[in-house]
Amino acid sequence: MTRAAAPGAATAYANARATMVRRLREQGIHDEDVLAALAAVPRHLFVEEALVWRAYDDTALPLGSAQTISQPFVVARMIEILLDRRGGLGKTLEIGAGCGYQAAVLAQLTSEVYAVERIASLLALAKVNLRKAGSQSRVRFKYADGQLGLPEAAPFDTVIVAAAAPRVPPALLQQLALGGRMLLPLGAGEQRLTLIERRAEAYLETRLDGVRFVPLLSGLE
Ligand code: SAH
Predict the structure, then answer these.
(1) CB neighbours of residue 102 within 10 Å
(2) Is 70 a catalytic residue?
(3) 129 Cβ closer than 6 Å to some ligand 1 atom
(4) Is residue 148 lining ligand 1, measured as CB closer than 6 Å?
(5) Is pLDDT larger for residue 37 or for residue 3?
(6) Considering Cα of 104, then 110, then 116, then 120, what sign does the dihedral take?
């Protein structure tokens, strides 16, 4: 009976994922590489068992520790912005690994992902989830306060921040490679996705979509 049920569930998840990707396309995600990456990651492996049936809804879901797994549209939109007119993401730093979902999507697009998380239990969960999803070899996890970046692996071609800060952490600016791009939700009350590009002469800042993220916090838990 278990053997008969398993392929059925796998097909149902694959269908739900295909529907999710079709909706992302309708909502304006155009980058085929980004859509393929979201199509390849089994999001149901990253959500709590009781919420598995909602894994492919385009919604944020609770992760535990008062954190949420990012909404698929926001993950897709952020990566699309970061990729825009570039060959690839290159060496990528993610701040706020949470359950590891976005790290797994990033790992579909680049071979070098560093993911930092300040809550130990979530970091452990992210590691288990990545192993279940089969993408652990491309992601290196670090238990640290991401506001300090990851100096030992810098500079980064891409920095993606999954929690909102009132202003850009200076360490993240310093650790961005020349020609690199960082995207983060910026603002204390109202938040906006903000793209920062490091040019030879200056950092170029572009304010984009209004968003709603959990706050970027200090220290470890
Ligand atoms: N990327 C996750 C989203 C996680 S929500 C996903 O794919 O679903 C944001 C995460 O940022 C939370 O897990 C939170 O603990 C973490 N976070 C907040 N402040 C942080 C900091 N200073 N350093 C590292 N992680 C941080």
Answers:
(1) 26
(2) yes
(3) no
(4) no
(5) 37
(6) positive
